[in-house]
Amino acid sequence: MNLTLRIWRQKGSEDKGRMVRYEVADVSPDMSFLEMLDVLNERLTLEGEEPVAFDHDCREGICGMCGMVINGVAHGPEVTTACQLHMRSFSDGDTIDIEPWRAKAFPVVKDLVVDRGAFDRIIQAGGYISAPTGSAPDAHSIPVAKADADRAFDAATCIGCGACVAACPNASAMLFTAAKVTHLGLLPQGQPERASRVVRMVDQMDAEDFGGCTNIGECAAVCPKGIPLETISRLNHDLLGSLSGADAK
Amino acid sequence: MIPTRYRSSVFLKAAMAVTGAVMVLFLIMHMVGNLKAFEGQESFDAYSHWLRVVGYPAVPEGGLLWAIRIALTVSVVVHIASATVLALRARRARPQRYQTRKRVRQSYASRTMRWGGVIIAVFVLYHILHLTVNVIAPGGASDSPYERLVNGFQQPLVAVFYIVSLLLVGLHLQHGLWSVFATLGASSGRREPLLRGGATALSVLLIAGFMLVPVSVMIGWVS
Ligand code: HEM
Ligand code: SF4
Ligand code: FES
User: Fold this and answer.
1) How far is the CA of A182 from the centre of ligand 2 (A)?
2) Out of A32, A41, A62, A131, which residue is the most buried by the measure of CB atoms under 10 Å away?
3) Complex ipTM, two decimals?
4) Distance B131 CA to ligand 2 centre (A)
5) What is its main location (chain B) (predicted)?
């Protein structure tokens, strides 16, 4: 099939950037979205033009690098990552708009590549447990209820892709932050730092200039890992509870 | 300086939830009180008077009314101030807009909370000047609250303004009422559909109750 792409081109963080139109011919419906971009980039390279910069790593939907807004939806028309999106989701003659994640906290590095370092700093602020090192303890020395283990695991599947921020009308990072708060908050190992964790992570989230949540739900609708909206209510519960707790800093 | 924890986006949002809930509780009482209009002028005016003397002599005359007014004023101020701070933060959080944007799940109600809220504030101001402090008197002034109400709603423009504003309040509450629970940490995957359904049902009931009065005056049931 033949496609028209309109891609955001931006030379660097200081450049203003603009949409540029490209025609791509003979695209196979079995290609992934990134493979389709590879085809375009090979041609641009041969023609002596600068290829379109986009992030990618695993190309199997587990690393969270390949963020881009496709036709106005984070990761495009299927609820998955851009690398797992296939061209069969489009039709011959389509025009496809491709833009980077847009948020103050995710500055554009080049073209479709943004800096998601703000997520790392949110995790550094409290998204971990402090545990003594040494040899691994017996796996069953601390029992965890099956329901809690399942929920915690589901929350832990967040790949930090940033689609939730890209999709949120407030550019809020609540779903990402709540996924980690939920993951650790449901497990016994996460309890000692539970209150201080949520306070620190939310403070960092605010300091990174993400917006606040208004329970709109666009984040959960595009999350490739299906992190549910209820995790945000869990975060709210822990944060409001921590305001009276002594653990909070 | 306000400590960091009270400036967090989650805390500000919780303040909006609590103050929003206070306003909703008031709206429920207010709506039920308005229905006295169907019992006729005497009953309605007596209710208006009762509001001013209830609790006397245990509390000073008008005491309860003033307590409610103060609680509501504080709620309105905190609600609007937090909404403003959060709206400014959200705007700063996305300095560059998308060229192409498609909505996936958001409802009309959730999308119009901010501008809808501003229009509601204008309506509330008009409403207070009209029926509470009696500064503007569309259709003719009167000492009887009942007559003021009937005179006002006999002006089609006034009645339509009230009805449109009430629809906006209903929309605000359809999202707001479920949002209260999510914001205060009481929502879950299982409870969410119930909360959303309950929010819609209560909003519809509340707004239908409020609308009965201007509509009845318009079509001449109450005169
Ligand atoms: C007067 C001007 C008003 C403005 C500017 C305003 C604005 C807002 C905004 C921006 C939100 C947050 C939207 C969201 O989280 O999705 C909100 C939530 C809410 N509003 Fe208002 N509003 C106003 C009046 C009212 C009134 C009169 C009521 C009650 C009758 C009310 C009840 C609520 C409730 C219950 C919420 C939900 C709080 C939460 O999200 O947890 N608001 N309002
Ligand atoms: S919550 Fe979902 S959308 Fe957000 S970063 Fe994690 S995996 Fe991506
Ligand atoms: S490239 Fe790793 S998730 Fe898409």
Assistant:
1) 13
2) A32
3) 0.90
4) 50
5) membrane
